Amino acid sequence: MSKVVKAKYTAEAVPGFTHRTALEEAARCLLCHDAPCSKGCPAGTDPAKFIRSIRFRNVKGAAETIRENNVLGGTCARVCPYDNLCEEACSRCGIDRPIEIGKLQRYAIEQEKLFKMKTLKAPAKKKAAKVACVGAGPASLACAAELAKDGYKVTIFEREAKAGGVLTYGITPSRLPQAVVDHDIAQVKGLGVKFVFNTEAKAEDLEDFDAVFVGAGLWSANLDQHNFKGAQLKGVYSAIDFLKQARTKKKDFSPGKRVIVVGGGDVAIDCAVTAKLLGAEDVRILYRRTIEEAPANINEFHYALSLGIGVTTGLYPVAAKGTKTLLKTVEAAGFYDKKAKAEFSADTLVFATGQSPEDMSKIGDLDLDHKGRIKVKKGGKAGGKFFAAGDVVNGGKTVVEAVAEGKEAAASIIAYLEKKGVK
Amino acid sequence: MAVKKDLSLKYLGVDCLNPFFLSSSPVGGNYDMVAKCYETGWGGCFFKTVGIFVADECSPRFDQTNKEGLPWVGFKNMEQISDKPTEVNFEYMYRLIRDYPEHITVASIMGSSVDEWKKLAKMADEAGAKIIEGNFSCPQMTSHDMGSDVGTNNELVESYSRAVAETVPHIPFVAKMTPNCKNMEEHARAALKGGAAAVSAINTIKSITNVDFENNTGMPVVDGKSSISGYSGAAVKPIALRFCTQVQQDEEIQRMAREGKWNFGYGHEMSGIGGIETWRDVAEFLAIGCRNIQVTTAIMQYGYRIVEDMASGLMHFMEEKGYDHLDEFIGCALPNLIPAEDLNRDYKVLPQFDDKKCIGCGRCYISCYDAAHQAIDWNERKRRPELNDNCVGCHLCLNVCPVQGCITPGEIKWKVRDKDGVAVREAKDPTHIKFKKDSRKDKKLSLKAHYE
Q1: Which distant-in-sequence residues (6+ apart) come within 8 Å of A410 by Cβ?
Q2: Rounded distance, CA A374 to CA A367, Å?
């Protein structure tokens, strides 16, 4: 009998470092001359510098380094694919195993909160130029923070009632607690960035702004893949709907007894974990390819497995069947193995097979590709006063990449406004 | 079949099961504790110091230093001598000596006058002690007539040693020395002159471990205040080894011991104390001539059970070296510890870098540049160090490298001197010069953990 982990939906799955264990881990760091970890961070969080600060007992300095370089430092500490980035680059891999950089970052940010530090400050004298950001997800938050630090007046338009985008309405709270997201967003608010909630920005709302950043993310579900039949049945969800319902309704949201999640990315695992933690008995991830091909972080697969979630590879759903409107069974077919066939009982079927942008033409005259994503030049330039970054441009990558792109776009916006002569 | 070696030896004429003793401290403060330590494998115990003075202790009384998250690198205590009535302590010792006749229960005593020393010596004799230790070294006594203030006063050391030696002439007296002194040898000579059989060292070092910024005082904090007090543990081992070596190398001390009544053919019989945790620490103290070793701090951290690995590890070491008895290597390092002016300065050993083991952290480069001779160039593309001609063979790089066996002692370069003795150039292979190489050079040995 395997020992299966029992966890709560809203409780953070991995415990953090204490002061002592953080120091022990920082002591393992080799403090490299040309630290490859720092080169490995897309957002420029500079782990080499903040780990050295922890090693020399300057915990506040560590938090300051993280926050100055990455306004979503607390969030990235939880959701970054470290094993493909800084930790993969870590020189210590040549001896045994990398430094747990993510956990050290989390520790430093936890200390920042405990000490009620206010690291980021906007200049008192504001610049005349006004910038609007569409969407309050990671890319917009990073962009807005950079602009506010430089003295620009920034307004973020958000359709939902809360900021965070996928951080608040997507990723499962056992991986990313809401308090962590809120603490990061509080830093952005602390810079004087204005948030306009429950407002879907349209072209006319953006007329008064000198520059517009679009970080609207991907919020349109792809349910009609592979000629799938039965998508209209009750119990069939897109990942974004499923996660959003769970995050807003929490324990009042019941996924039923049997849940099938389709997909092989981190979002699929988030959905499966969410279903399990909300009480589903039998949760299965259905992925058409092999585990090696799956884009999800292997540690997330391990975590799902530890909760008792199964992974079935090689199959994809072809039809959902039910009584009139209610989902009963899911039929699947082999992806590589053409002979393979299966039928599963299911109360809930979640498609975590990627999302698309919504109609971006409402925002302004933007150049879109065939998938509806915004086409940009280097630095997120989308033409004229428009700039864009994050999932709506890259088609759905990591939070840290959205932060990196948001920061780059902010630099482009500053250069654009300075060139235009807006003071 | 487990390795079994005879660890017994004679210390001041007394047969000991092994050299592992508890030092006079809280770890040996009553009957049950000491009985347990004997059952665990300790050969003897310097029972917690007894005085006429009964200590009134403060709370809390300990603090510790740490480095890179590693606790107990050093340990500070503010305890004095026993806080139990004098008679109760001697009663414990009497019962221990009666119930554990093969184990050596040493009476550690501390008086504040000649009369008190005499009285305590007599009580120790009545309890049956085969050895008495005089505590001349506790640095945190609340009276200046006792402890390390006495230990640095040669007249007092001599007269108190005499008081004990004359009261109980049939019991060897060990004077415990303080490291809080300018020159331990002169205080050791004073003790021997007064009739002490030998000295033990070191007691704790006066210290302030940490400053508390809530109360702006040292640690531990007692009602908003703190005091200077004794430091011990792994951090002090190098200092203890130094003091023991200097005492053992002092010709006058050795002469006095050989000519005195407590001569058993070993010269001065040192008891080594200070930061001992492992068999290797024990072997090191034996190598510089100690015939007995005492431990407290490591027991406070880990318990009596550490003696199991001390004994087993020491036996394996002896097996490896081909020793059958401790006497075969006691003092073996003393002849090779020489004054700096006598060291061979005719050559340098260049470091050798193993590019395959190297992980490219660049620590050798940083340390060599910032703290040595800028002898390492950094190849940014390969992320590898490259030695240049500036190298003086100091081996800072080797000491700072985090990868085992990556930087090792390599090529030897000899200095060629002119007629005035000034080094003018280097030569590769002067085969006519014989010298002993650094044992770490032997790659086979470098793989064995305890040689690192």
Answers
A1: A142, A143, A144, A145, A146, A147, A150, A213
A2: 6
Chain A, window 274-303: residues with a beta carbon less than 8 angstroms from a chain B beta carbon: none
Q: Are B358 and B400 in contact (CB under 8 A)?
A: no
Query: CB distance A32–B360 less than 8 Å?
Result: yes
Q: What is the reported pLDDT for B448?
A: 42
Contact A34 B362 (CB under 8 A): yes
B70 with A30: Cβ contact below 8 A? no
Partner residue opposite A91 with nearest CB, options B66, B361, B365: B361
Chain B positions in Cβ-Cβ contact with residue A34 (cut-off 8 Å)? 362, 378, 380, 383
Angle, CA of B341, B346 and B350, to the nearest 5°:
115
The rounded distance, in Å, linking the Cα atoms of B359 and A32 is 10
- Phi, psi (degrees; rounded to nearest 5) at B143: -125, 140
Contact residues, chain B, for A107 at CB < 8 Å: none
Sheet containing A386-388: order of strands: A194-196, A153-157, A130-134, A211-214, A386-388
List all residues of chain A from 70 to 109 with a beta carbon under 8 Å from chain B.
Answer: 91-95
Residue type, B327: D
- Encode pLDDT of A321-352 as tens digits: 988 778 999 999 999 999 999 999 999 999 99
Out of A24, A25, A30, closest to residue B363 by CB: A30
State the smallest CA–CA distance between residue B364 and chain A in angstroms: 9
Across the A:B interface, residue pairs with CB atoms under 8 Å apart total 49
Which chain B residue has its CA at the smallest distance from A93's CA?
B359
Contacts of B184 (CB under 8 A, 6+ apart): B177, B201, B243, B246, B247
For residue A21, the chain B residues in CB contact (below 8 A) are 69
A273 close to A303: Cβ distance less than 8 angstroms: yes
A364-387 residue pLDDT tens: 889 999 989 999 999 999 999 999
Annotated catalytic sites of B, by residue?
Answer: 138
pTM recorded for the entire structure:
0.87
Return all residues near B225 (Cβ < 8 A) that are at least 6 apart.
Answer: B215, B217
**Would you call B362 an interface residue with chain A, using a CB distance cutoff of 8 Å?**
yes
Please answer whether residues A88 and A40 qualify as being in contact, where contact means their C-beta atoms are separated by less than 8 angstroms: yes
> Over the stretch B118-170, which tens digit does the pLDDT of each residue have?
999 999 999 999 999 999 999 988 888 888 889 999 999 999 999 999 999 99
Q: B384 — contact with chain A (CB < 8 Å)?
A: no
In tens, the pLDDT along B406-452 reads: 999 999 998 888 888 888 777 765 554 555 555 444 444 343 443 33
- With beta carbons less than 8 A apart as the criterion, state whether B163 and B118 touch: yes
Tokens of A266: 């981190």
Q: Rounded to an integer, what distance in angstroms lies between the CA atom of residue A197 and that of residue B291?
A: 80
How many CA atoms are closer than 13 Å to the CA of A301, on its beta-carbon side?
Answer: 18
pLDDT digits (tens, 9 = 90+) for B228-265: 999 999 999 999 999 999 999 999 999 999 999 999 99
Q: For chain A, say whether B403 makes contact (Cβ under 8 Å).
A: yes
0.90 surpassed by complex ipTM: no
With b for 16 or more beta-carbon neighbours within 10 A and e for fewer, the B93-107 pattern comes to: bbbbbeebeebbbbb
A31 contact B CB<8A: yes
